Amino acid sequence: MTEISFYQQIYPIIIMMPIAAACFLALVLSKGEVCPGQRKRITENMISIWAVLALGLMIGIEEHATTLTLIVGGIAVFIGIMQNLIQSRLEGKRAIPSTWLRLPIILAVITGVLVLWQQQQLLLLLEAILLGAVFAHVVLLRAKHRLQAFNVILPIVGIVASILLMLGLLVVAGLNADASNMAVIQEFVIYRALILLLALAIWTIPLYTKQEYTPNMVSLTTVLLLFSEVIGMGVVTAF
To answer: DSSP characters for 155-215?
Structure first.
């Protein structure tokens, strides 16, 4: 296994998570039956999407991200933040048109494609789906949404992505492991699996207890999933 830095492990995850979350939220705004008040609150809370993406780009400077990635991502963040400032100045339940969000989200997706191309890790796409789903869920809960279907859809998407991720990680580890590093790889995989199962258990509690989701519960899930995926990315990137 190759020694890698913490920034190398976290950079692609921090970039891809908000991009995937923005795509989920765009789906919610376009397909969900969202009233003007909910639309405004969701749009306002998307500031966290652009803030995390900006953080990822700053880490990318340290990790020698391509100039094109930084430029396209920077423009997406700038437009997203400007739109959020405009939204914050609108009174009442007025919201900016959803079509305005297309440009920064398209630019963010292009940024994600560039990162995937540079990283050459297909499992990163599954990590983006998993983390994007839980991040989008946090944004929706903080926006006090009433779209109950997405309280089911997003956790299910996360569960499916996590299962595929674990299978993919086992395949990568199995193909590249040898006797000298097998014990270390097994330790990483076991730790990741335990944290992942804990995160998914917390995320799905309301599904089978019929309780209401809370932002704090899903925020804790997000932190645990981030931790588990940083461990997983450490194994994948090392080969």
So the answer is: HHHHHHHHHHHHHHHHHHHHHH--TTTHHHHHHHHHHHHHHHHHHHHHHHHHHHH-PPP-H
